[in-house]
Design brief:
Aminopeptidase, 28% helix, 28% strand, alpha+beta, 6 helices, 8 strands, binds coenzyme A
């Protein structure tokens, strides 16, 4: 993780619905378009999200946000009992990027998911950024569904998440409308 005075001033806490407007702003700013913020809204309001966290400075300025939605294994094979989620989106205000905020958010959220008994996390993102945080495109080759390629990566949080593959998965419905 990048070290900086800013990162050391960070607090990571659970999302509250009072953060919704600020989180939309940070998501639009980070991606420079509205599509990911719209996806996030739909995921949240269809009940697909299993975890949302925000990063803020000690004086209460929101710097970043991360969300995870439920992914459903198909009801065949030994992987059907796995608890699987998708990391998307993760956003840091452009002004605060490259100072460790994204890594701190991702690490804190993964630790919480691990302690809740989650087995596997999937992500579609930068093949140079996410491997730094343990995501692996080779592991994701054992996960079949709508996504493939080197931007599709997986991280096992448990022994079962590594061993009980391959699996076929379905993502939450809002991903089908996402372009
Ligand atoms: C991706 C993102 C969340 C990372 O957050 P961050 O706080 O900037 O990242 P960190 O400070 O923890 O890590 C910085 C390092 O990651 C690299 N990095 C950041 N975003 C990257 C990207 N999209 N692709 C490749 N590398 C990236 C930086 O160059 C930097 O590298 P360095 O340590 O060698 O200088 C942030 O850049 C962002 O909001 N991007 C726009 C939205 C996005 O693409 N989200 C991911 C897909 S869901």
């Amino acid at each position: 993780m990048s070290k900086s005075p800013l990162a050391e001033d960070l607090q990571i806490r659970d999302f509250s619905i009072a953060d919704e407007a600020c989180v939309r702003d940070v998501t639009v700013a980070a991606f420079a378009q509205e599509a990911e913020a719209n996806l996030l809204y739909r995921l949240r309001h269809c009940g697909a999200l299993i975890l949302e966290k925000v990063a803020e400075s000690r004086d209460g300025k929101l710097q970043g946000h991360i969300a995870f939605s439920r992914v459903t294994p198909r009801a065949t094979g030994r992987g059907q009992g796995l608890k699987v989620s998708c990391l998307a989106p993760v956003s840091v205000w452009p002004h605060y990027q490259k100072q460790g905020v994204g890594s701190a958010l991702i690490r804190a959220a993964l630790e919480q998911l691990r302690s809740c008994g989650e087995d596997l996390v999937l992500v579609l993102g930068s093949p140079t950024y996410f491997p730094r945080l343990g995501f692996d495109a080779d592991l994701a080759k054992k996960v079949s569904g709508p996504y493939a390629g080197n931007a599709f990566m997986a991280l096992a949080l448990s022994e079962a998440g590594q061993a009980n593959l391959p699996i076929e998965v379905a993502f939450a419905t809002p991903f089908e409308e996402f372009e």
